[in-house]
């Protein structure tokens, strides 16, 4: 056990337990990706319309569903807050059926979501979801053709 691992165990018992349990899933990431909770995330430095961002992530053979739980959302939102502070696509839309939110891997949104105050409010005009700095880095439904930052995920 090296020094950094020991420090992690000492100061973040819950996290180290979780990390140890998931070590068999994924403990490293490709270049440009960051490891979090057994999954890998790449934060874009460019801004793209929703469909283009989706295509880019899929070309990297990733599933685009980065904010599936509160813990992961906090990680992603904090990263956005600390870096670009810009609107960032998260791979969730209701473009197929209005009001039915679906992740990029085809699974339905479970629970209420992490919406900003008053969101979602765009009806059939706004079908793509991004992290929204103006509403405490929670979610906003928005117009899909707008260019925004995006996050690609490689599932553990
Ligand atoms: Ca909509
Ligand atoms: Ca909205």
UniProtKB/TrEMBL annotation:
Any Pfam family the entry gives: Lectin_C
Keyword check for Disulfide bond: yes
Keywords: Disulfide bond, Lectin
Keyword Disulfide bond annotated: yes
SUPFAM superfamilies, per the entry: C-type lectin-like (SSF56436)
Molecular functions per Gene Ontology: carbohydrate binding
Matching Gene3D superfamilies: Mannose-Binding Protein A, subunit A
Record InterPro entries: C-type_lectin-like, C-type_lectin-like/link_sf, C-type_lectin_CS, Ca-Dep_Lectins_ImmuneDev, CTDL_fold
Record's protein name: C-type lectin 2
